[in-house]
């Protein structure tokens, strides 16, 4: 606004010129012109509408909805102080610090009102104050302070990713896990009757009781999920089970934790074997029931997603193990298929190795890992297969051999990187073989 | 802060949450405003807002300015690096404006490589790497060369206490406008030259050199540069052959603080210079003053070893504000020379910025009154006035010679009110040439 404009608007009658402002509740007040013009929005209105705007009660300038009378008076106080040109920076800062001390409710209203009036310095001031309030607090504290509704379901709280179901990588993972299951099954046949003896009856019952579907069964600290009926059938009792067995060992994401959890797992494997031997008929085959397949796929998806996605939610807290509830209403057929599922997935974790970190687990030891993946290049997606053996996982970078020469860089990248980017390297585990 | 429990409104949704009557105001703020509030928070707090409520669940993925601090809430490094990786992976905004990394713990070079790649993907405009080397066990952090070739959209780059890696491939920062290199270790002199010459639109350069950074002569040859701030963090490890070479014809702001026994060569005239500040120990300060004769505001604290500050003939025709530090022994010489050579000077400020050197100068009445005193000087300000002989003489001289003087402001260091009164009395009794002079004493 220029001095000339202000001079034109000034009514001749008064020494001081006033502008009339109307808030949405209908109340009209008179404000000194210089002070009101400090707000860009008011200034803009006055200039745009020409002479006479705001100069009397009848044609008062109507303020945006977010400015209520209380906030208006606060804002005008702020403007009254700052529009005086002679103040030093230090004075302004001291004033601002005192000015901004108010309860959070008023602070939010002030930020909103200042934003609608486009008074940037005040918006910045109140934003900084709000940020200071939020900083360093836990979500519960923040919800208390700002009266936020605690309307996230448990499931939502634990699933920071959205739409990952649609992600092509997850579908890929599904297919790969299916192949994997098949192969593991074959190996199990060869493996061992001897393992059968170590059946732990009690834990089988435990598993069965989950499987038989006590609705909303709560295990330790997990809570039931209510949403997302699509995935209702068998939520990963895998992880659920693991959780119950492992007493909060974090199977996902934390290498160290996984290592620690390994020692518990052999007991699991016994259970699995016992389950598996029961589950001949429900075995997942290529020609299996599509419904079943879909359910299994979903489970795998879920599992993979949880592996991939559960990460630091808050740095200060212990990471909560992933919780699932069971809305089980599994038929027997599903039961057995599920058991296979359970078994095969558990086997991923078991035997002292895990899968590379980018999928949530790491490979260690003398294991051969076959990785097939999808890589996006400018031209389109390209499949490739890598096969290599990790000889010494402790060395950095890890040693591996049997990698086709042109893929070596990729493998090295994968092993050293814990990050997946779209259109770079997207790998999933296809098969794991034991030596 | 306590939840107000004495009034409930039953929420008639199926979930039957009980909601306090107090409204959730903050979630009703416009999204842009919420994002700018979240931009002020460290990244760990930003991520934890996803748990607050439905409104906030995905808000965090659009925050445009992110600050990752690995010392915040003492998070262990492995978790921190995974957190950063996944945060960047899940981020949904097409462009992140600012990525600010504050690293202090053991930082893997691989991590930084990945993060720089992420910065490139998100077209980050401002990238800041700040290393906290206060703890002894943190190894120096080497920035990979992908930084030079990868980030084409960078507008601002700030590096603090990092080590730059040499690269044979060409460096390119086509959009870089602001570059800040503080306490950085370079591969060598040529690297600095090639780095700076690969920034075609660079406008702002801030360099703080530290000892043992592998650079002897820091060459700044940037035609587009508008603002240059050079300073040296003192310490052992500098030699007499260290120095600066400056070739910046578009420069408007120059600020050099250099207490080494070094040199500074300016290779080109700087016709656009507006403000210059020299707080230096160079042997031939006149050599640099010669190139900034168009300057409007000047601050000098020069170590003088001879009478002539600069080859006479350098007249500062545009100089309006002059500030001289009174710590040096020969500051009086400098003052008189500058007054003589600044015909349009309007404001003179004398300030005691550093500890006074032991030897104080003696006042010598000049042969002729400088022109600026007669016709243009309007304000005199003295901060750190002590009332010594030569200081009194200076004030007396100016007061009796300056015709146009309007405002004199003297601030004393002493806290003793008697002493202050003395000083005031002395000053007030000085004869004043100008009749409209306002005297302010603090």
Automatic annotation (TrEMBL), chain A:
Recorded hits in InterPro entries, A to Z, give: SKP1, SKP1-like, SKP1-like_dim_sf, SKP1/BTB/POZ_sf, Skp1_comp_dimer
Look up keyword Lyase and say if it applies: no
Database matches in Gene3D superfamilies: Potassium Channel Kv1.1, Chain A
Record keywords, A-Z: Ubl conjugation pathway
Functional pathway:
Protein modification; protein ubiquitination
* Coiled-coil portions: none
SKP1 component dimerisation domain span: 120-157
UniProt-listed SMART domains: Skp1
Family assignment from sequence similarity? Belongs to the SKP1 family.
What PANTHER family would the database entry show? SKP1
- The molecule here is called SKP1 component dimerisation domain-containing protein
TrEMBL record, chain B:
What the entry lists under Pfam families is as follows: F-box, FBD, LRR_At5g56370
SUPFAM superfamilies to which the protein is assigned, alphabetical: F-box domain, RNI-like
- SMART domains, per this entry? FBD, FBOX
**What InterPro entries does this protein map onto?**
F-box-like_dom_sf, F-box_dom, FBD, FBL13/AtMIF1-like, LRR_dom_sf, LRR_FXL15/At3g58940/PEG3-like
Stretches assigned to the F-box domain: 23-75
The cross-references to PANTHER family, in alphabetical order and at most eight, read:
EMB|CAB62440.1-RELATED, F-BOX/RNI SUPERFAMILY PROTEIN-RELATED
Q: What is this protein called?
A: F-box domain-containing protein
């Amino acid at each position: 606004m220029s001095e000339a404009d202000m001079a034109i608007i000034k009514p001749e009658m008064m020494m001081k010129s006033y502008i009339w402002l109307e808030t949405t509740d209908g109340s009209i007040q008179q404000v000194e012109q210089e002070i009101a013009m400090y707000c860009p929005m008011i200034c803009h209105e006055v200039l745009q509408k020409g002479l006479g705007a705001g100069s009397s009660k009848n044609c008062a300038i109507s303020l945006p909805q977010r400015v209520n009378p209380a906030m208006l008076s606060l804002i005008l106080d702020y403007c009254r102080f700052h529009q005086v040109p002679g103040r030093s920076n230090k004075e302004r800062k001291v004033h601002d610090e005192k000015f901004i001390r108010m309860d959070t409710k008023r602070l939010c209203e002030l930020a909103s009102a200042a934003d609608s009036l486009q008074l940037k310095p005040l918006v910045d001031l109140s934003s900084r104050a709000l940020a200071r309030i939020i900083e360093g607090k836990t979500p519960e504290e923040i919800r208390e302070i700002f009266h936020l509704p605690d309307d996230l379901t448990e499931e939502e709280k634990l699933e920071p990713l959205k739409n990952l179901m649609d992600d092509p990588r997850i579908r890929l993972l599904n297919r790969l896990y299916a192949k994997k299951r098949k192969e593991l099954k074959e190996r199990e046949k060869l493996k061992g009757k001897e393992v059968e003896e170590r059946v732990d009856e009690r834990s089988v019952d435990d598993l069965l009781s989950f499987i038989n579907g006590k609705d909303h069964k709560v295990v330790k600290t997990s809570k039931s999920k209510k949403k997302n009926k699509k995935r209702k059938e068998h939520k990963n009792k895998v992880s659920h089970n693991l959780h119950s067995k492992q007493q909060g060992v974090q199977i996902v994401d934390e290498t160290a934790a996984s290592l620690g959890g390994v020692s518990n797992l052999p007991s699991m494997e016994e259970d699995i074997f016992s389950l598996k031997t029961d589950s001949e008929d429900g075995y997942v085959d290529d020609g299996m029931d599509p419904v079943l397949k879909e359910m299994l796929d979903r489970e795998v998806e879920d599992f993979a997603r949880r592996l991939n996605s559960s990460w630091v939610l808050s740095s200060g807290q212990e990471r909560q193990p992933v919780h699932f509830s069971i809305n089980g209403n599994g038929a027997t057929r599903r039961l057995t298929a599920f058991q296979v599922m359970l078994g095969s997935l558990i086997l991923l974790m078991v035997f002292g190795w895990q899968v590379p970190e980018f999928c949530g687990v790491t490979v260690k030891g003398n294991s051969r890992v076959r990785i097939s993946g999808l890589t996006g290049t400018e031209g389109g997606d390209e499949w490739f297969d890598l096969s290599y053996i990790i000889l010494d996982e402790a060395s950095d970078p890890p040693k591996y051999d049997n990698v086709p020469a042109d893929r070596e860089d990729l493998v090295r990248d994968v092993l050293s990187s814990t990050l997946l980017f779209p259109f770079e390297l997207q790998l999933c585990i296809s098969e794991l073989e034991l030596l | 802060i306590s939840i107000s429990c004495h009034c409930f409104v039953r929420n008639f949704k199926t979930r039957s949450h009980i909601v306090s009557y107090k409204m959730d105001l903050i979630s009703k703020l416009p999204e842009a405003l919420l994002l700018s509030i979240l931009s002020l928070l460290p990244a760990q707090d930003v991520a934890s807002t996803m748990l607050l409520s439905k409104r906030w669940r995905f808000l965090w993925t659009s925050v445009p300015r992110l600050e990752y601090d690995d010392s915040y809430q003492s998070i262990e490094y492995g978790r921190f690096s995974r957190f950063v990786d996944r945060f960047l992976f899940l981020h949904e905004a097409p462009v992140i404006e600012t990525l600010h990394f504050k690293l202090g713990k053991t930082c893997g070079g691989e991590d930084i490589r990945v993060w720089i790649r992420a910065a490139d993907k998100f077209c980050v405009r401002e990238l800041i790497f700040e290393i906290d080397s206060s703890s002894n066990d943190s190894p120096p952090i080497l920035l990979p060369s992908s930084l030079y070739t990868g980030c084409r959209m960078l507008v601002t780059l700030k590096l603090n206490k990092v080590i730059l890696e040499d690269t044979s491939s060409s460096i390119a920062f086509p959009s870089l406008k602001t570059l800040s290199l503080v306490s950085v270790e370079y591969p060598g002199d040529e690297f600095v030259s090639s780095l700076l010459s690969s920034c075609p639109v660079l406008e702002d350069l801030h360099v703080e050199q530290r000892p043992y950074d592998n650079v002897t002569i820091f060459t700044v040859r940037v035609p587009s540069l508008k603002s240059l701030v050079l300073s040296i963090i003192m310490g052992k490890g500098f030699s007499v052959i260290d120095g600066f070479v400056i070739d910046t014809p578009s420069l408007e702001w120059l600020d050099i603080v250099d207490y080494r026994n070094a040199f500074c060569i300016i290779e080109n005239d700087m016709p656009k210079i507006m403000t210059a500040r020299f707080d230096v120990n160079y042997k031939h300060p006149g050599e640099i003053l010669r190139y900034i004769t168009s300057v409007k505001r000047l601050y000098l604290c020069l170590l003088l070893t001879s009478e002539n500050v600069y080859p006479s003939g350098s007249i500062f025709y545009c100089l309006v504000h002059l500030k001289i530090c009174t710590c040096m022994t020969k500051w009086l010489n400098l003052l008189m020379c500058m007054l003589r050579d600044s015909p349009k000077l309007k404001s003179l400020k004398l300030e005691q910025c550093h500890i006074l050197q032991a030897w104080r100068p003696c006042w010598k009445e000049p042969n002729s009154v400088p022109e600026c005193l007669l016709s243009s000087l309007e304000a005199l300000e003295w901060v750190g006035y002590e009332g010594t002989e030569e200081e009194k003489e200076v004030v007396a001289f100016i007061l009796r010679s300056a015709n146009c003087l309007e405002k004199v402001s003297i601030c004393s260091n002493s806290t003793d009110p008697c002493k202050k009164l003395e000083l005031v009395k002395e000053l007030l009794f000085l004869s004043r040439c100008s009749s409209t002079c306002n005297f302010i004493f603090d």
